[in-house]
Amino acid sequence: MHRIYFDNAATTSLAPEVLEAMMPYLTEKFGNPSSIYSYGREARMGIENARKSVAKILHAHPSEIFFTSGGTESSNTAITASVRDLGCRHIITSPIEHHATLHTVQHLYKESKVKLSYVKLLSNGHIDLADLENLLATATQKTLVTLMHANNEIGNLLDIKKVGELCKQYNAIFHSDTVQTVGHLPFDLENTHVHFITGSAHKFHGPKGIGLFYINRDVSIQPHIHGGAQERNMRAGTENLYGIVGFAKALEISTENYEADSAYILSLKQYMQQELIKHIPAVTFNGDVNGKSLYTVLSANFPQTEKSEMLLYNFDINHICVSGGSACSSGASQGSHVLQAIYDNPDFVTVRFSFCKHNTKEEVDEVITMLKTLL
Amino acid sequence: MHRIYFDNAATTSLAPEVLEAMMPYLTEKFGNPSSIYSYGREARMGIENARKSVAKILHAHPSEIFFTSGGTESSNTAITASVRDLGCRHIITSPIEHHATLHTVQHLYKESKVKLSYVKLLSNGHIDLADLENLLATATQKTLVTLMHANNEIGNLLDIKKVGELCKQYNAIFHSDTVQTVGHLPFDLENTHVHFITGSAHKFHGPKGIGLFYINRDVSIQPHIHGGAQERNMRAGTENLYGIVGFAKALEISTENYEADSAYILSLKQYMQQELIKHIPAVTFNGDVNGKSLYTVLSANFPQTEKSEMLLYNFDINHICVSGGSACSSGASQGSHVLQAIYDNPDFVTVRFSFCKHNTKEEVDEVITMLKTLL
């Protein structure tokens, strides 16, 4: 079956080279990394080499790199620990964050542990940095700012350095959900004022079930999961050995080929945008699509008609994989909290196309042809 | 290199059939299980079939089965939720629990959220059930009992049905860390009064980084990790698809061959015990070794001498993999909290041998020969 997969922001295929790097640990090198004998030491070495490699790529220190079960666990840990261990009594976030952030801050709010402020959005979906500064300047309690680096539904990019500087100025803790950008954009953590970032290998051709948690060495927190002394007492539980090795390998590959791959993927996004404008009347795009936007994501709006409402269904039966909002809201009937926050009452059908290096112009052409037929 | 791996309570090799079952999901079936199109649905089907299979084997309902990143996360979730959501203000545990339990209850105790009671141990390391009943009978607040099914260091088995009946009688919540028994012993959860059990695939030839969390349908709790709606809102984060498929396959294999495998492994344990007694003067064994004991674990004590103190080191250079206490305390110099709790001041060198179906009598013979030389 010929499938077109334009949903790479939901998950990506595992790179064969990554699987190859994982295979020794899925077969003969199966030791428990906490064991001191040979089997354990070779497993431990796999983990520590992965940590060093990830740290080097992100310009961090290996002692700042932790492995978790995924971006969601990392964000939960960062936010919960900022309140429990770092004294934050006020959280500033935005209404377009991922649910890993929103549901965690709302849980803390319901437990009466924090005051909660939502920063205003500009009409193009960007964070209103003037409002953020105003919130920070008027805050009376220690504050956590949690804002995502790239929005997973519309692709808008936050100026993470600028937000970091604001947080530094107002002595706030800064957590950024970087799940859509780790493995997609270069990081220079040494020169970025951020306390916590997160990552998920399956967003950049790595395995599922393994995440990154960066903790800046200036802060000290307690674990979210207690138990054994793994991850230097920061994350208990026998390590997901192959996942960790796969995370590092996937990040290495994406870093090596960043210039060429990102330029190519951007050209696909631009081509798709241009073809949509050419062939689909009244199509519009979400977010700052030609400005500060992730090169992988194109979120398009189609006027609401009987035909467009069947769009996701028809894409599916034609073996085209796309999302409504994010993977969690793929059903056409489910509303997107992101679009709801940006538009008062969105009256169009939104499709998120998200690309990877394996996609082609020919696939874009096929999808455009299909769209012309369907609409 | 010829290695003898007698540390199967720390971790096990991944079964080739399990890896084979995982491979389609590591290659072409890479969809996000939350996506509604074809790729997503085939991933979703993999997860739901795994859930049904696990539920059937454990005599539970599929809606009671959740997948987490491991046994440690499952125990953290159970214990934390019992306090936060089920009103438990008193925890009864034992001093020989796994750190996933002990460090979690101690964290809650330090946060002044619970009263903490440690049940007495009998001289053979078993839980004193009369003391447990006394603690339950005199409890003035809603109580959580958290006691492990099989001790990972000495192999003692808890009468989980009996403890469940006591908890029922005194209206207590019961969590059992069953990481050493899921995949090793049959379960009949329908007829066991337990609210939470846990499991870890890598303890029975499944993959690392994937755990079981059973929540009895009579209780309703909030998640430990907030975010997306995965696992019916109980555990957020893109699912570890291959891990889940691998968990179910490993459990199926272990269940199919339970009678033969457990009898064979028990024969190895008994043979090793008998040979140790025959050849090593003054050797003793921890726990109820010939009574209620897991067939996989044999914990032996050697009189403390200059030679025995180098035992683990010498085992290692001879490519024999064993533990001191558990994997987390493999270093000879680290004390075991389990042995410390049972003996006042243990003055011997303890080695945990733990077996699997791939071990042989010949390997036992080799280890005995080695021991005779070393001591």
Brief description of this entry?
The structure is a homodimer of 375-residue chains. Chain A is an alpha/beta fold. In chain A, 40% of the residues lie in helices and 13% in strands.
**Residue fraction in strands of chain A:** 5-15%
Helix run count of chain A:
13
| Low-pLDDT ranges of chain A | 327-333
Determine the oligomeric state from the structure. homodimer
User: How would a textbook summarize the main sheet of chain A?
Assistant: 7 strands, mixed
- Radius of gyration based on Cα positions of chain A: 21 Å
Summing up helix and strand content along with how strands pair, one would put the structural category of chain A as: alpha/beta
Distance linking N and C termini of chain A:
24 Å
- Total number of beta strands of chain A: 12
Element order, helices and strands of chain A? EHHEHEHEHEHEEEHHHEEHHEHEH
The proportion of residues forming helix of chain A, as a percent range, comes to 40-55%
Q: Any idea what the shape of chain A is?
A: globular
Q: Name the average pLDDT of chain A.
A: 95
Largest interface: A-B, 71 and 71 residues
Strand order of the largest sheet of chain A: 2-8-7-6-5-3-4
